[in-house]
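Lab meeting, item 3. Inverse folding demo.
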């Protein structure tokens, strides 16, 4: 009887443990979040030292560092333009993802992949401060501090056989400290030829990832793993000294502005020149162009009137 009871106990544990684990996981993923209470607002002089220390990372850079300027006017510009920027950015994302979706469907035999919903939300990013470097080169170096805690909603619908799977990316947060270099500066609109972008710090990325309604980012351990993976991959691509180069103007428009030497040209002979003077023959001279720049030039006119001048 004792052996039989022990076997029943092990059997019950073997069956009950997976069932309990599955039920617990289901309620953990699909249970609605608890109602969040709004914090009490108190004057800063009523806060103790520990609370003030915890608030220091949230203080804008223009408060902590005199090198950063406050750009409230630029943030207001972004707020006014955000509804239109949202549509333009989302339209670009849709177009750029069409080829990727088509390749994925052909490779994995998926019937259909499409954006069910794509919006960056109503909350625009804010620039916490802007630092401008002065250099002797023909370039403009900017270092903005960008924070975006938006209410974005990106829903991708995947039709596999007869099942439709909804994948959601919601509540995206990005904290970036990029260095933006506009170089070289040229006299052709928009007055810079390339945009070079580097991240001076590893970015903070946070988002909700839902599959079939369950938030996978709520699984213990998975959130930190994804965070570290994203930081590592982004750092390998764009963390300084790595640079993302975005060409703006055609290379043919961008010309070398710094002289690197002196070129002496001697014209030895010319033949069958047309007569351009009403009286007498032509006064020939030569024009030589190396680029589109206005460089100092020197013109020597051949003094002898001749249609076939020759220098001995």
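The presenter then showed the designed sequence:
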């Amino acid at each position: 009887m004792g052996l039989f009871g022990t076997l029943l106990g092990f059997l019950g544990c073997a069956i009950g443990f997976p069932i309990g684990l599955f039920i617990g996981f289901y309620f953990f993923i699909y249970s609605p979040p608890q109602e969040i209470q709004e914090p009490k607002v108190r004057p800063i002089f009523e806060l103790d030292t520990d609370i003030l220390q915890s608030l220091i990372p949230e203080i804008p850079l223009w408060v902590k560092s005199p090198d950063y300027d406050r750009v409230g006017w630029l943030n207001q510009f972004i707020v006014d333009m955000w509804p239109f920027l949202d549509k333009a950015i989302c339209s670009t994302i849709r177009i750029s993802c069409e080829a990727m979706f088509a390749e994925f469907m052909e490779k994995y035999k998926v019937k259909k992949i499409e954006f069910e919903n794509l919006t960056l939300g109503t909350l625009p990013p804010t620039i916490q401060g802007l630092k401008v470097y002065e250099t002797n080169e023909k370039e403009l170096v900017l270092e903005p501090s960008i924070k975006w805690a938006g209410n974005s909603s990106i829903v991708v619908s995947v039709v596999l056989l007869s099942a439709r799977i909804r994948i959601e990316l919601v509540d995206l947060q990005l904290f970036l400290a990029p260095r933006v270099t506009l170089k070289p500066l040229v006299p052709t609109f928009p007055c810079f030829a390339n945009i070079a972008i580097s991240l001076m710090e590893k970015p903070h990325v946070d988002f909700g990832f839902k599959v079939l309604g369950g938030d996978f980012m709520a699984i213990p351990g998975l959130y930190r793993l994804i965070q570290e993976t994203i930081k590592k991959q982004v750092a390998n691509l764009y963390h300084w000294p790595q640079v993302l180069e975005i060409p703006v103007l055609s290379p043919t428009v961008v010309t070398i502005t710094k002289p690197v030497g002196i070129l002496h040209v001697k014209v030895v002979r010319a033949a069958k020149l047309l007569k351009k003077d009403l009286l007498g023959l032509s006064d020939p001279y030569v024009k030589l162009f190396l680029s589109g720049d206005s460089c100092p030039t020197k013109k020597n006119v051949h003094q002898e009137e001749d249609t076939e001048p020759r220098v001995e």
